[in-house]
Design a protein that fits this description.
The protein is mainly alpha-helical. β1 and β2 form a beta hairpin. It has a two-stranded antiparallel ribbon with strand order 1-2. The chain has one helix and two strands; from the N terminus they run αββ.
Length: 71
């Protein structure tokens, strides 16, 4: 294998690795966005739960659903 062939092989490997790193970076960025959305939803649900448990939302009705009298 000549020097130019070795260099070409190394350049191809680097290009492939760069592409793979970019794809992985894109996946991580998308997952972070999803995590941010889920954390926001979790915080809203937790706040609503706190409100309901402190009597602010009423225990007879939660999110538009009327609970049976035994609750």
């Amino acid at each position: 294998m000549s020097d130019s062939e070795r260099i070409a092989e190394l350049e191809m490997r680097v290009a492939f690795q760069d592409n793979t790193i970019q794809e992985l970076s894109d996946v991580v960025a998308k997952q972070q966005q999803q995590l941010d959305l889920l954390q926001g939803a979790h915080q809203k649900l937790y706040a609503r739960l706190e409100e309901v448990s402190q009597g602010g939302g009423g225990t007879e009705e939660v999110a538009g659903i009327e609970l049976p009298p035994h609750y």
